[in-house]
Design brief:
17 strands, 6-stranded mixed beta sheet, alpha/beta, single chain
């Protein structure tokens, strides 16, 4: 009887393995066959001069509002008016809340919901003392070997100037939209976007109620990001995490360090922080991440194909593997990052109050309340006080990646980047799209430029840069997308 049971179990395992192999063999690479782009767009000549000039404006957002300089923002406004005379004369331009910009290209059929193309022209500061690490000065607008160097070249004047160039290209060809096209450019995305995109969103809600879809920054065309996958990936963010920061604090008796207690306030706090790092939020595949890895697996090794073709059985194994790398781990769980800590002001003084800040990036499907409950349960120490910093926000909804609006975006990617694989994915950072969620369920995060891991690292770091040919080709993407959306 034992032999029979063992034989049956073995046959069952073999059968499951055979089924798994069959499923893996059926996981085929997606081949898109879109029509070619419009000849007038494909053959257009695109200038990069305005893109180069744009990074010379030091439109820097600062966390400390008292250090913020408004003058470069107003100078940038004035420059745009002169740099894009066709746009200025053909579209209605409005300044929102003093510094953000809204352009309206009115369509002939006002019963159609508009499309909304967004970006931001503020940039992060260059960290003091790192200026000499730049190969070219961050605001000089230098070009070398076909690359534009400078703060904002990738994040996000790439989108702002690219969209304006796309509109200017169509205006030069006497194109008139049927569906209204809205261009919204915020001035404070790097410090929350509340005063920029937040105010534009309120205005658009009152004026239109809804838009058909929105495209903002967030995803790129990538090459070599996933090991073993050679095909370029056009990564379209269909959801994004939210950010929640909390302050943990504990009170102590203080005193001289020569007579310390068993555990100082800072020691108690350190233990709580270690517990948080040791007890991470539960991990799982979201729909966006599952779709991304399934698409990518079809381009990869047989092992990848086997795992994702049989994800129903192997999800725990796949999730465990993804947790082995910080980059992929961030796609499958709400992350915990201890970012700041303070104790006493002197080395021989015990702290009376010790504090630390922990930043969580919340996975869609998790919640602010769930994270706060997790903090309490993990620390399990009533001496630790928890205070939420700022206004907490839930993670974004997941936009459909089977809708007609997504197919329009996918079609445009296929027309301009025929070798690329368009795929939904989860953006682990935050964008201005959070402010526009009341306007549409179709929010997509994508910028038409090819980047590597090294280029991505420069966006908020040293030596930010962007290929000029990539920018010019991206202009054609924006022009084609506007046409396809009519």
């Amino acid at each position: 009887m034992k032999k029979l049971i063992a034989t049956v179990l073995l046959l069952g395992v073999v059968a499951l393995g055979a089924i798994g192999v069959l499923r893996a063999s059926r996981l085929q690479s997606r081949v898109l066959t879109p029509s070619p782009p419009d000849v007038s767009i494909a053959n257009a000549t695109v200038s990069v001069e305005r893109f180069i000039q744009s990074v010379r404006f030091q439109t820097i957002s600062t966390q400390d509002s008292t250090q913020w300089n408004a003058a470069p923002f107003l100078e940038f406004h004035s420059w745009l008016s002169g740099a894009f005379p066709r746009v200025e004369s053909s579209l209605l331009r409005e300044v929102v809340n003093g510094y953000s910009l809204l352009y309206t290209w009115k369509g002939s059929d006002t019963t159609l919901a508009p499309i909304l193309l967004t970006g931001h022209f503020d940039v992060v500061p260059v960290e003091a003392g790192t200026e000499t690490l730049w190969k070219h000065p961050p605001f000089a607008g230098d070009t070398a070997d076909g690359v534009l160097w400078g703060r904002g070249s990738a994040d996000d004047k790439l989108s702002v100037i690219g969209v304006l160039e796309g509109v200017d290209l169509l205006l030069g060809q006497h194109f008139s939209p049927t569906r209204t096209v809205l261009l919204a450019f915020g001035h404070d995305e790097e410090v929350s976007g509340n005063r920029g995109a937040g105010e534009i969103a309120k205005l658009l809600k009152e004026r239109y109620g809804a838009v058909a879809f929105l495209v903002d920054e967030g995803g790129f065309l990538t090459q070599g990001i996933v090991p073993g996958v050679q095909r370029p990936l056009a990564m379209v963010g269909v959801a994004e995490k939210s950010s929640l920061s909390v302050e943990l604090s504990v009170m102590g008796a203080g005193g001289h360090s020569s007579i310390p207690p068993d555990h100082s306030a800072l020691g108690i706090l350190a233990r709580a922080l270690t517990r948080l790092e040791d007890h991470q939020m539960p991990a799982r595949l979201t729909p966006a991440t599952r779709a991304f890895f399934t698409n990518v697996a079809a381009e990869g090794s047989f092992g990848m194909k086997f795992a994702f073709a049989n994800i129903g059985m192997l999800e725990p194994v796949v999730v465990r593997a993804l947790l082995g790398n910080p980059q992929t781990a961030s796609t499958v769980r709400s992350t915990t990052a201890v970012t700041m800590a303070s104790g006493s002001p002197k080395e021989n003084v015990l702290p009376i109050r010790a504090t630390a800040v922990v930043n969580f990036r919340i996975l869609p499907g998790d919640s602010v309340k769930g994270v706060l409950d997790h903090i309490t349960d993990s620390i399990a120490d009533s001496a630790i006080k928890v205070r939420v910093l700022g206004t907490p926000r839930e993670p974004s909804p997941v936009s459909s990646f089977t809708s007609p609006e997504f197919r329009t975006l996918e079609k445009t990617i296929g027309q301009l980047y025929p070798k690329a694989l368009p795929t939904p994915y989860l953006l682990t950072a935050a964008t201005d799209t959070r402010h526009y969620e009341a306007l549409t369920n179709n929010i997509y995060r994508f910028a038409p430029a090819t980047v590597t891991s090294e280029l991505l690292a420069g966006a908020h770091g040293t030596n930010e840069r962007m290929g000029l040919a990539d920018f010019a080709h991206g202009v054609k993407f924006w022009a084609q997308l506007i046409k396809n959306a009519q």
